[in-house]
Amino acid sequence: MKNNEEMKFTIPYASAVRIKSPYPSSDNYTWHAYVNVKDMPKNIPTEVNPRETNMKTKVAKNLVNSLETSDQSFYKKNRGILFSTKKVINSMGALIVDMGKNNDDDKSKYGILDGGHTYKAIIDNNDTLDDTNVQFVHLEIMTAIDDIDGMASARNSSVQVDDKAIAELANKFEFIKEAIKNEPFSNNISYKQNENKDIDTVDIVRMMYALNIFKYPETSLKQPIQSYSGKSQVLKDYLSEYDRHEKSSSENPYKKLAILLPSMARLYDTIEQDIGQAYKEGTEDGRFGKVKGVEAKPSISKYYKNPISYQVSQGLLFPILGGFRALIKEDDNSVEWEIDPIKIWKKTRVKLVANTISMSRQLGNNPQSAGKSSTLWSQNFDTINTAKMKEQMRQLSKG
Predict the structure, then answer these.
(1) Three-state DSSP state, 325
(2) Helix axis angle, 314-323 relative to 374-397, nearest 10°?
(3) pTM for the model
């Protein structure tokens, strides 16, 4: 598809229904349709989806197996595909789905928000499906989504029910509970499915994953991007390490990192509180609320409920947080901060925020793409590592 060419896709359907928003003042509509998988168009943009597709996982392989099994149940066995679109027209048994133009701006607003693995399984295997194997997929097509990043984050935050529920029943979160028992947010964490709490257990695990010096040491060429883009994968890694070190729990990297959880949470909240001011200090226009992925809306920070001026996409927050693993070291089978992370944040916050917003803009004003950018994660790590070495040299020179 050529640059700036219109992205319109004609999708024949077996059945479809249009539902109007329940709010009288809204003209937004959602379409639900069952579509033969062989009628799914190729090249639908996926940039708005924060999750990378990895077809080597067990879940992805099960998707393909379900697609290839002639039992007419593929559409029942997954949640289908969610589209963000500019406009939808129902025409002669087909939906004409308008996703704007083939440019960075429109691809940051329109495309597949959720169900990227389902879509890839279909497109990769359509040509090899037996003609007698008729399978359908459920499409949910929404127009005029105002908070595209918030919607993408919400729809891609699911974790397999059994993993979390079984982990809690098996007391696999006990050292997390112990580490944060004196923190004010300790009673505001949901460890069980459908608990009505503000903080998910997996959010805690994601912080540790982003700062996991054992899985992502300084010499590693990889970055802990899955802490942003792969919530279920992060939980699986946590459970895998727990089981692997069950007989020698002191060797569990997550148990080692848990001791830093209170300071990790304070760091996360401090970034939330300061990020807007850091942006203003590093740019001439200073209009942080106009940045894609930022909403100028007073709220409270995630863990300590401090007032914040902006709600910021995790695609912008996590590449900053992950860089601070440069300050963590292992000593005598335990971990500690080499230097107070808040102190280094104050010294580097302008550069870290500039790095992050600049990368998001280079990637089409797309915070989801920024959150998945290995280059950005590496830049922020290097920024903090350099600041650490300067601080250590300064302390040495003082004797």
Answers:
(1) helix
(2) 40
(3) 0.70
